[in-house]
Amino acid sequence: MKTNIKFLILFSFLFTLMLNDVYSCTVIIAGKNTTRDGAILFGKTEDDGGMEVDYLWRFPRQEYSQGSFLIANLEGLEIPQRPITYSYLLDECPPTHYSNMVVNEWGVAFGSNGCKSKEDPVKTLEKRDQITGGGIGFMLRIILAQRAKTARQAVLIASELIDKYGYRASGRNLNIVGPDEAWQLQMVRGKHYVARRVKDDEVAIISNTFSIREVDLKDRDNYIASPDLIDYAIKRGWYDPEKEGDFDFAKAYADPEYHTANSNNHRQWIMAKALNPSFPISLEEAETGEMPVAFKPAKKIAVEDMMDVLRNHYEGTSLDRSESHLHNPHHTPYTICRYSTHKATIVQQRSEMPVEMGTVIWRALGQPCQSVFVPWYLGVQEIPERYKKKPYHSTMKSQTELVKDKAANSSFIYYHFNFPFWKHKETDVKTASGVFKMLGNLVNADYSNHHPVVRKSFQSMEAHMLQMQSFVEDTAMTLYREDKQKALNYISDYTRYQANEAYEKARALSIRMMQSD
User: With contact defined as beta carbons under 8 Å apart, do 502 and 386 qualify?
Assistant: First the structure.
C-alpha cells in the first residue's frame, strides 16, 4: 500500500509543534587559519516549524534616482535609498522574518540566530525613543547586502541604521562573513548591540542565545558596539561592576532562562567537542551557560568536517538517544540536525580567488543527514526553475513602484509576507524544496530502513562533488584568465547540473520508498 504523503507531512508538522525547542538554528564559523584550505567556513542550519519551503533567487544590481527610498518594514518605515545597490543571492524562506540567508556580489554572507534578550517590548521602547517607525528587522540583512563590500563595512552600516531607527526583534545574532573577515553582530531590541570579529585562529559557535562575553570598547579592530552598551546595562540593573567584575555581554543582556537552556548549551558543547575531543568544558559546566564564544580545533577543518557537524545527533556521547540509529535520532532532544531543520548551508570563502569562484555556497535542503550539500558558486548566472517559485516580477510591482500601505510595502516585502501559506506549503514535487521535504518525511517514518539507503546514495554524490572541486575550479580559473564570461558560464553549467542531479536523485528515492511501502 502506498504511503499517505499528506499524513506523513501532517504527522511531522504536529510532532515539531510538540517539541519545546522548535526554533533552534545553529551556527559555526571557522577562521581562515583553522581550515585545511585557508578558507573561512560559515556553517548554518535553519530550524523553524518543520513545514517551511526554501527558494533561491538572484537579484541584479539596481540604480535609483535621487530622492528614492526603500520600505524597511511592514509599518512602512522609509529609508533613503543608495544610487546603486549591489546584486545578491537570496535564499528565501517565506513568510519567516529571519530564516533567510543572503550572499552579495562581493561574497559577503548574512545569516542569523534568534537570541531572546531581557529588553522591553517594541511599544515601550518607541515611547523611550529607542525605536523609530517600527525599527529595523527583516530587511536589515538585505539592506546590508545591497550596500556593503566587506563584512566590516556591513557591521558599520548596520550600527548606523540601529543607532538611528533601532532594532525590533527581542535579540538576534547576525553572522556577517566575507572572504577576508567574519563578524558576529549581536543586537538587542532598541539601540544596543555589540559586534565581535571572529579571529583567524578560532572557531566561533552559537545556538539561540547571545555568545559574546568580553567586550573591549577600545579595540575597534575586533569590537564595534553601541557607545552606552555597558552604562545602559548598569542603569537597567543587569550588570553590577562592583559585584560582578568584568562586563559580560551575554550574561548582562540575554534572557537568563534561554541562556542556560539545554536546548542551547548542548548544541554549542557538541560543536566544540566534535572538532576538539579535548575541549576542556564538561557537559555539566556547559549546562550552566558558561560556554565560550569560540574555541581552538584539534586539527585543520575541511568542508566535509563542517558537514558532519551540521548532521550531528550527539553520536558517541551520553546525549545520544538513537541507539546507534536503530531508532530515529531526531527523537533526541536539542540535536543540531532535527525534525524542524529545513535547510543547512556552508559558505566557503577563499579570498585568493575571484569572488565568483572563491565563494561557494554548499546548500542542503531538508535535514542534512538525509540530504546532500550541493555547491552553488556565487558566479552562477541563473537559478534552475526547480529551485525557485514564480518570479517576483511576473506578479509584483517593480522595486521602484513602492506600495505605501501597511499590507504591501515593496514588491519583495509584499510577496514574502503575503506568501500563499497553505497552498504552497503542500509538498510540491516540481520544486526541489518540496521533493526534499517529502523525502525527509518518508525517511522519518521508517528511519532505520530508509536512512541507510538515502545516506549511501547521497554520500557518494557528495564525495564526488568534493573530489571534483579542485578540477572544476582549476578549469574555471583557466577560462577566467582568457574570458571571464566563459568562466562564469562554465561554473553556472556545473552548478545547474549538480543541483538538478540532486533533485532527480531525491525524487527517485522518494518514489522508490513509496512503492516499497
Answer: no
- By three-state DSSP, how is residue 446 classified? coil
The CA distance from 302 to 348, in Å, is 10
Write down the pLDDT at residue 43.
Answer: 98
Residue 430 has pLDDT above 50, yes or no: yes
| Amino acid at the residue 449 | N
In the prediction, which pLDDT does 325 show? Answer: 60
pLDDT digits (tens, 9 = 90+) for 32-47: 999 999 999 999 999 9
Q: Whole-angstrom Cα distance, residue 375 to residue 39?
A: 15
The pTM (predicted TM-score) of the whole model is 0.93
- Cell of residue 157, nine digits: 552600516
> CA–CA distance from 14 to each of 9, 22, 47, 442, 484 (Å)?
9, 11, 15, 15, 50
pLDDT of residue 420: 65
Residue 242 grid cell: 562592583
Find the DSSP H helices in 39-139.
Answer: 122-127
Alpha helices in 196-237 (DSSP H): 229-235
Q: Which three cell numbers stand for residue 270?
A: 557538541
Q: Which three cell numbers mark 381?
A: 548566472
Mean pLDDT score, 224-252 = 97
pLDDT tens sequence across 332-357: 888 999 988 999 999 999 999 999 99
Round to whole Å and give the CA distance between 342 and 49. Answer: 9
Residue with C-alpha cell 550574561? 251
Angle at 457 between CA 306 and CA 334, to 5 degrees: 45
For residue 246, what is the DSSP state? S
Q: What are phi and psi of 324, to 5 degrees?
A: 55, 35
DSSP tally for the chain: helices H, then strands E: 18, 19
- Domains in the chain, CATH or no CATH each: 5-516 (3.60.60.10)
Evaluate the CA torsion angle 246, 247, 251, 252 in order and state its sign. Answer: positive
Contact call for residues 209 and 258 (beta carbons, < 8 A): yes
In sequence order, the β-bridge partners of residue 44 are 27, 345
